[in-house]
Every structure is written in structure tokens, then in C-alpha cells.
Inverse folding.
């Protein structure tokens, strides 16, 4: 059975990019355009891993992270942000990895593979 | 009339703007929203942090498990990394080196909602012991010249997680601020053959107008030229340039005074965001006659704008004599409010 990944990001272009690459790797990818929607999708699909943007309108990624880990502490969550400086936010420690968005998706693919092993 | 004041150590000027003088109740402090949810620093979540480098209080030998009263862990996403060589290089007029350093987080309590200002002195003593133990350990690494120890409290002061913690960063260079303090105090020493901090202590004890509180070993003052309203310095009464060389009983004495200082500040301006920084001598330095270790506590009540950035001047709407008066007058006999701890 395919492993399920939930991608929560407010940029649709990221959905297209990540979905294509991760589906090629054999994963089933679900998407959500906000933190609030992401939490609902999480409840319904129970993914094996979440890729989470930080800077989103409404509920930001840090809030979503804290809620996800409260629900399921061992759920792998990869933070994916265009900005490096959120690393200074200790709340990010609840995540399993932090990846700075880039056109080169090798780091993302490697991180997903590592956490879904 | 506004007043320009010069810091006698750094030569930095500040402006006391008494026309817009602010009392403690004039400051609007936004209370941080406790965000709740999963906390990576709470007991039971040790596997979300890097492996600890120090822990106190556990009565069993298994690391990275609950039972601790204080825990120190490397930063999970550090700005500087511990492995590697410095590889110092010149590039024309510019200098650079690899980003080598150690960035650690001191988790001061297992209780999620125990603010620093409400910690018992015994717990604060543990925090100070941890500062010493980690500084001594990192000081064995010849790549490092200085360990900066600091705390951010409140979002406005840079703290992103409400679980009480402080941080330290071991650096391969001396921070500019410490170099300036060392140079300024040495210049005074060469001229007068006395430590400027010892002179400041004598003066403040004699006149008392900027004295906040004191015990047999330490005192707290508002400095003559403070950058921030209610800025405070905590200094040992006896001359010492190195925090880590302090004898154990003095840590207990320091924690008692520091606890009082924090409670005075928090009662005066509840939940005020603040930073504090330990200023101490460079790693492996011999005792310095001209330098005196101390803590600088900076409440975050004003913002730096163009004038401050451009001039290096700070505008302070509360004279330190008034701030010291307000802090001294606080009645600490009534018990502080108690937050419901999570654990």
C-alpha cells in the first residue's frame, strides 16, 4: 500500500511541484491550502507524513505543527519554508526536519524517504 | 529638559527624555498568548531534542528520559556548527572563517508554565550552575574564545516558546560588545588604577538613588546611562572578572538576589518581555583587575528606530533613578500569582 503524504502549503505552485515529484517516488500525496484545512484533511486521511509550510495566512505552520504533534507525537513532520530564519524559533524543534524551499528537490526527497523508512 | 548621559565604560551616549517620562503603568505590555499544543522542551518529549549534554536531578542513569530538573541540549537547528576547523581566510579587506560554534539551550524547568520570575531561588541556582558547567566544558575547546549566555523572555524579546529556557553560544571570536567593555574598563584602570565597576558599586551603594536591592554578596542597580527603561545590572560586590570561577555558595546567594530582582520587575510591569545577558571575561583568561563580570537585564519596552540605528544613541523615557525608586518600592510580601503548571 502506498504511503500517504499530506502537504500543507498556501502556494498552489508548490502543490503541483511537490505532488509531481513525490508521486513519481511512489507516494500518495494529498494537499491543503491552509493550516485549518490541513488539520481537517489530516483527520480524514491519517497520513504517514506531513510536509508543512510555516508562513501561511491564518493558522501558521508552527501552530499546525504543535497541534499535529499533540494529536500524534510520532508523526513525521517536515517543515518546508522559503526562509531559513524560522529555524531560530524553538517551536520548530517539534518537527523532524526543516528544509529550505529550493528548485532542487533532492533534499526533500531524501528527507521524506528517511522518515518513511 | 532632556538629558544626555554617557556610559562611563563604553562611552555610549543615551538621551533621558523626561518630557515624555513614563511610569511603570504607562507601558503597554502585550501578554503573550500561550499557544498550547505539543512542546518539544517538556518531559516525555526528550526524543524531539538533540541528545542532552547536561542534566540535573534525574535519580537514574538513563539520559534523555524524564525525571530531570534542568536539561541542556544542543540547538536542533543551530546557526553555528560544532564540527570542523575554523579555516580563517582573508578576501581582500575582508576576513572570514567557517561558522564553527556551539549553540545550546538550557531548559530551566520541567514545568511548562513556570516563568523565570516565579522560580524558586533553588531552581535559579541550578540555572546558574548550568551556565557555569557548560561554559567550563566549552572552554576546554581551543577553537572558542567566548561563551555568550543569554535569555529571551516574551515574544517581543525574541522568545518563541513559553517553556522557560535560556541559551548559550560558544564563539570563535570575542563579541564586539565584550571587546568594547574590556577596552573601556582597561582604559579607566590604566588611568585610575581601579576597576570601574568596583567604583560604580561603591558610588551606587553610597548614594543609593539607583540601587534596586542587595544582599551580602550581590547588588542590583539601574545603570547611570541605561538603554532601556528599567534596565538593571546585577554585579558581585567583590571584584571578580570570571563568572565561572565563583564559589558554589555564591551561586545560591546570586540566585536569591536574582529571584528578588525578577519578582520586583514582574510586579512593577507584569509579564514584561526582557533579555538578559551575562558579561564575563574571555575563556581561559587570567583574572582581570579591570573587568568585573555582571548580568545586564534589558526589559523590552521601547523600539529601536532610525535615530537609534543611525546614531547608536538610545532614547529612554524613564530616568534610572525613578526606575530604581519604583522597583525598590515594590512590596514583595504578597505572594506572586501562580500559573497552573502543566506537569
Amino acid at each position: 500500500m502506498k504511503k500517504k503524504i499530506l502537504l500543507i502549503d498556501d502556494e498552489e505552485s508548490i502543490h503541483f511541484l511537490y505532488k509531481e515529484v513525490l508521486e513519481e517516488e511512489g507516494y500518495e500525496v494529498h494537499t491543503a491550502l491552509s493550516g485549518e484545512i490541513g488539520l481537517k484533511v489530516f483527520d480524514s486521511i491519517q497520513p504517514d507524513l506531513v510536509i508543512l509550510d510555516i508562513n501561511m495566512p491564518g493558522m501558521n505552520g508552527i501552530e499546525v505543527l504543535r497541534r499535529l504533534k499533540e494529536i500524534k507525537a510520532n508523526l513525521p513532520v517536515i517543515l518546508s519554508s522559503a526562509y531559513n530564519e524560522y529555524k531560530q524559533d524553538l517551536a520548530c524543534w517539534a518537527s523532524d526536519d526543516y528544509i529550505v524551499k529550493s528548485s532542487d528537490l533532492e533534499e526533500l526527497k531524501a528527507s521524506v524517504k528517511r522518515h518513511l523508512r | 529638559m532632556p538629558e544626555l548621559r554617557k556610559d562611563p565604560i563604553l562611552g555610549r551616549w543615551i538621551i533621558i527624555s523626561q518630557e515624555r517620562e513614563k511610569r511603570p503603568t504607562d507601558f503597554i505590555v502585550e501578554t503573550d498568548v500561550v499557544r498550547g499544543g505539543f512542546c518539544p522542551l517538556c518531559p516525555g518529549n526528550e526524543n524531539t531534542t538533540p541528545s542532552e549534554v547536561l542534566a540535573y536531578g534525574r535519580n537514574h542513569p538513563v539520559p534523555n528520559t524524564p525525571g530531570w530538573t534542568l536539561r541542556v541540549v544542543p540547538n536542533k537547528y543551530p546557526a553555528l556548527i560544532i564540527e570542523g576547523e575554523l579555516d580563517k581566510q582573508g578576501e581582500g579587506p575582508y576576513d572570514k572563517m567557517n561558522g564553527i560554534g556551539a549553540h545550546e539551550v538550557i531548559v530551566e524547568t520541567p514545568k511548562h508554565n513556570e516563568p523565570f520570575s516565579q522560580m524558586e531561588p533553588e531552581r535559579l541556582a541550578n540555572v546558574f550552575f548550568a551556565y557555569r558547567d557548560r561554559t567550563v566544558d566549552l572552554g576546554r575547546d581551543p577553537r572558542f574564545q567566548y561563551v555568550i549566555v543569554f535569555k529571551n523572555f516574551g515574544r517581543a524579546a525574541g522568545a518563541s516558546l513559553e517553556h522557560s529556557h535560556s541559551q548559550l553560544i560558544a564563539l570563535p571570536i570575542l563579541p564586539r560588545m565584550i571587546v568594547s567593555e574590556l577596552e573601556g574598563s582597561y582604559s579607566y584602570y590604566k588611568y585610575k588604577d581601579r576597576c570601574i565597576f568596583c567604583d560604580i558599586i561603591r558610588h551606587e551603594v553610597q548614594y543609593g538613588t539607583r540601587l534596586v536591592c542587595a544582599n551580602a554578596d550581590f547588588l542590583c542597580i539601574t545603570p547611570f546611562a541605561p538603554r532601556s527603561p528599567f534596565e538593571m545590572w546585577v554585579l558581585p560586590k567583590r571584584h571578580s572578572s570570571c563568572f565561572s570561577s565563583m564559589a558554589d555558595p555564591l551561586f545560591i546567594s546570586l540566585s536569591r538576589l536574582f529571584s528578588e530582582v525578577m519578582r520586583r520587575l514582574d510586579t512593577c510591569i507584569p509579564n514584561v518581555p526582557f533579555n538578559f545577558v551575562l558579561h564575563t571575561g574571555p575563556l581561559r583568561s587570567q583574572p582581570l583587575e579591570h573587568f568585573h563580570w555582571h548580568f545586564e537585564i534589558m526589559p523590552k519596552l521601547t523600539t529601536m528606530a532610525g535615530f537609534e540605528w543611525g546614531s547608536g544613541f538610545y532614547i529612554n523615557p524613564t530616568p534610572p533613578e525613578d526606575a530604581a525608586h519604583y522597583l525598590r518600592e515594590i512590596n514583595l510580601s504578597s505572594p506572586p500569582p501562580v500559573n497552573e503548571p502543566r506537569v
Residues 12-24 of chain A form the longest helix (13 residues). The domain at 4-66+73-101 of chain A is CATH 3.40.50.2300 (Rossmann fold). DSSP finds four helices and five strands in chain A.
